[in-house]
Amino acid sequence: MEIPVGLGGITLLVLAVLWLVIFVPGLSKRAQLKEASHIAQSEIRRQREIIKVTPQDQLRRLINTQRVFSSLFGLFALLTVSSAIGSALESAWWLAFWPALVSTLFFLFVQRAAGIKANQLATKLHRSRQSVRRSAQRDMPKSQGSREWMPNPLPSPIKSSTEGEMLEPIAQVIAIAKPKASMSSAEIDAILARRRAI
């Protein structure tokens, strides 16, 4: 199969048209996209500056910083020891040893500074909580000396005088050890009639 010579030129022309249609508008819109993303990021930064960081948030950040830099210190300390051993065998390892040593010391310094700052902030928060508790206990009213039971006063609509005689007599109380003889059906009917009347 023979391929005509002009086919390569036509292919290049089609690719150039596709390039102009697809990629060139994207390049012109890229500046707009970059501007929009810059505006969004500046708005996010402005919102973060408005929000006040609480001491608890600051303590959490310091603890996270201490953890991250502690792990970085461990990794770079291992790298420093490895490069020191390598430099004993080959002198080219000295190029890796010194930057690793400087990085290790830097990570150690940042980790310790974050730990000290977190400790100070945690102590300050603990003292402020304790002072709030102490002031609340100091302001609390003193409890009464008597701890005996006192009846709960009833509200006025329920409270009524109980003076006078009862309209219905109280039932007789008999000892359980001496049960009354079995009742007749007339007595049981009278009791049930009184209960239904209530």
Task: Record the SSE blueprint.
Layout lengths: L5 H45 L4 H35 L4 H46 L45 H13 L1
Folded structure, characterized:
The structure is a single chain. This protein is mainly α. Among the domains are: 11-51; 53-136. The protein is 70% helix and 0% strand. The chain is built from 4 helices and no strands. The protein has helices spanning 6-50, 55-89, 94-139, 185-197. Helix 2 (55-89) packs antiparallel against helix 3. The radius of gyration is 45 Å and the shape is elongated.
Order of helices and strands: HHHH
Helix content: over 70%
Main β-sheet description: none
Please tell me what the overall shape is.
elongated
Task: Determine the number of helices (DSSP H or I, runs of at least 4 residues).
Answer: 4
Query: Gyration radius, to the nearest Å?
Result: 45 Å
Number of strands: 0
Distance between the termini: 115 Å
Task: Classify the beta-strand content into a percent band.
Answer: under 5%
Uncertain ranges = none
Structural class: mainly alpha
Mean pLDDT: 83
Structure at a glance:
The protein is mostly helical and 198 residues long. Among the domains are: 41 residues; 84 residues. It is 70% helix and 0% strand.
Characteristic terms for this protein:
single chain; 198 residues
